[in-house]
Fold this sequence. Notes:
Low-confidence stretches: 21-37
Number of strands: 0
Helix content: 55-70%
Shape: elongated
Order of helices and strands: HHHHHHHHH
Strand content: under 5%
Largest sheet: none
Mean pLDDT: 82
Number of helices: 9
Distance between the termini: 23 Å
Structural class: mainly alpha
Amino acid sequence: MPHHAAVLKDVPTILTIPPAADPCNKGRGGQALARRNQALSEKSYERIVTWMRARIGERITEDMLHKLSPMGRHAFRRAFEARAGMPPMHFLTWMRVDLAVRLLIDTRFNLNEIAFVTGLENKQTLADTFRGTLGVRPQALRVSSR
């Protein structure tokens, strides 16, 4: 396995793939959610996203994320969704897919290595996640980018 820490330190802090493209985000009343619930401050949101990015290759649960905020689990989920436009675990999936896209294009890591670095467990989970979020197989993206 290559040394993945070197790769992760160069990962930009913004997503290449816009989360607004998330097919799971259709029909959500984000503005209504913001009016009804506690808001997640910009500082808290940035701290949580930075924490997710720093541990992207690890197993992360929504419970772990909510403990980083002063809110209860359900309030956190609603507040995060109001700020990010999608639930926290969908956002994490988009972060992982975004990193995987960059690794497919910019490195020669094989699919198992990319799955490991991005926290997607194995190449099958990576492929399933790609098909579900981008509608393409990772191999097709790598071939088209060369």
